[in-house]
Structure formats: structure tokens, C-alpha cells
Amino acid sequence: MEGRGALSEIEEAVVPTGHAPELEREIERVLITEREIQDKLRELGEQITRDYRGRELLLVGVLKGAFVLMADLSRYIHLPVETDFMAVASYGAATKTSGVVRILKDLDHDVEGQDILLVEDIVDSGLTLNYLLKNLRGRRPASLEVCALLKKTGIQRVHLDVRYVGFEIPPEFVVGYGLDFAEKFRNLPYIATLRPEAYGDV
Ligand code: IMP
Q: Is the shortest distance between the CB of 179 and ligand 1 below 6 Å?
């Protein structure tokens, strides 16, 4: 589109989009733009479509963070997928992982013999994913792989094989595209860091 193309990628990265002005006052920097996310998801969707053709894929989204990713990614996968969700306890208002994972909502169905793709918003310490993978492996799926939109570089406390990764990012706290701080910012269509003052306001 002409009009949208007039806004360069660089401008798009630094100028708030006007998506939610009250929220965007708290944003320090946009790390990954809406367009970059969508382009990457289209690529991942094509790869997943190729990899799972002819199989019965179950997408398992990890709530709450992955709800936006699940909605977009699933529409870039051109296969008859099934979807389910698990909810795990998150950080609350704190920004550091505790390593303690509690399942708040489990899968609706037995997954024995199914091809599962676990859809995660972000791999930080990796402890949540590590716990979920162990838990799901115990249910004897035919296969179990992970798709994570973001992976923080170099700070995982456990070794994890994440087959599909959207972006590697520096180990900073980020919000947007499903990721929250104190339950806010999930509805921003991009990934951003917060201004230091934002942490004091809640
Ligand atoms: P991990 O167990 O340390 O890998 O963290 C897993 C969960 O913590 C993610 O699924 C997120 O819900 C949350 N989390 C980790 N890093 C961030 C962040 O930078 N922003 C928002 N939430 C995060």
C-alpha cells in the first residue's frame, strides 16, 4: 500500500503507533515492529505447514502470553490444526522468574499419540518451558516441539531445544504482543521495552 509504505521501517520502529496513547507513554523503545512480527510468523507458518503436512497437528498455547501469537500463527498454518491451551502461573507484577510453575488450566483432552506443537510467547530462563515439556512428554504424544516468538539470548538456565524461534532478543524485560507487565500492554501489536518509570507506577 502506498500510504503505509511511506512510513519507513525506521520511523515505524521509533514512533508510537497511536495504538493506545495512554499505554504508549510508558514505552521506551519498540524492539520489533508489528510488520516484522507478521512477516516472521508468515515464514514460521509456512515452515510448520511443510513440516507437518499429512499429520494431525495439535497447537497448545501457553496462556496468557501466547493468546495473541496463537491467533496469528494458527492462521499462517495451512493445515487442519486443532488448538488447546494450558494456563500457568506467571510472574504477576514482578519481572524476575521464580522457577515455580503452577498449572492453572490443563488441556481439555488426552494427547497420547498426537503431534504437539507448544506455542510460547517467550523463553526467558526456560524454566516454564522445561517444566511444561517434561509434563507433556509424560502424556506420550507422538511428537513434541516448541514454537516461541521470542528467546532471550544467553540466559536460559536449562538446555532446551526450541525448533521454531521468531526472534532472539537481548535479556531485557519486554511487553506487547501478548506479553504483559502487571497485566497491561498485552494488546500492543509490537514488542517494546518500558521506560524505567513505568515499573514504579503499579
Ligand atoms: P521463563 O520460565 O523464565 O522462561 O519465563 C516464562 C514466562 O515468563 C513467559 O512465558 C512470560 O509469561 C514471562 N516472561 C518472561 N520474560 C518476560 C518479559 O520480558 N516480559 C513479559 N513476560 C515475561
A: yes
